[in-house]
TrEMBL record:
Residues 1-76 form the FAS1 domain. This is FAS1 domain-containing protein. Pfam families: Fasciclin. Gene3D superfamilies: FAS1 domain. It comes from Strigamia maritima (European centipede).
Amino acid sequence: FLALVLSHAVNGTFYSQGLRDGQWLTTISKYLVPIWVGVVSEGNSRRLDSINGQVRVLQADIPVDNGVIHVIDRPINPTELVDLFKCESDFL
């Protein structure tokens, strides 16, 4: 479970306004899985739209005690996560 969570978290706080379309971020999992964000510009504002071009962002910029979260419609890179779990001896 921890590997799944860490593969969806990055170091730092990233609000939609501070992201640019196509920007790469690296997760904090021990495998340093790279992800890229899709940002849509709407006038003077920006909206976080997708992750890796496939995962949709349902709600962005939700402040929490230690940063910000973005709600997505499904896990990021599910096939990569399966491979990640296969490598985890604790998971087997």
